[in-house]
Design goal:
Distance between the termini: 162 Å
Largest sheet: none
Order of helices and strands: HH
Structural class: mainly alpha
């Protein structure tokens, strides 16, 4: 048979358990709130860092673009200066060939004159 004293012990035990459950819920609620707050701040920090990184990438792309355009302009100028060189070299080769022929002819004439003396 269940006595009143036993019932009181059970009731006290249940009340104690309810209080412990309430304390655990309160503690968990606070910890969850702290975690949400911390994660929110960390997410905000990551977003800020990402935006900073994006801005730096854009600046680098703009700067590198200017350098690449300048490099391309330099190559174009050099090409424009060097483009006529092959025809100039060809002309010089022809002139040198003519000079060689004249020098060879004159050398032969000089040798002939030396032998005739």
């Amino acid at each position: 048979m269940i006595t009143e004293e036993f019932m009181q012990q059970v009731l006290n035990k249940l009340t104690s358990l309810e209080q412990e459950i309430s304390d655990v819920k309160s503690t968990l609620g606070q910890e969850i709130s702290d975690v949400k707050s911390t994660l929110g701040q960390e997410i905000s920090d990551v977003k800020s860092a990402l935006n900073d990184t994006r801005e730096r990438v854009i600046l680098m792309e703009n700067e590198q673009g200017r350098y690449l355009r300048a490099l391309g302009d330099g190559y174009t100028l050099m090409y424009d200066k060097l483009e006529p060189l092959p025809s100039a070299v060809e002309t010089l080769q022809e002139d040198v060939s003519v000079i060689k022929a004249v020098v060879t002819s004159h050398s032969a004439d000089i040798n002939t004159l030396k032998l005739a003396k």
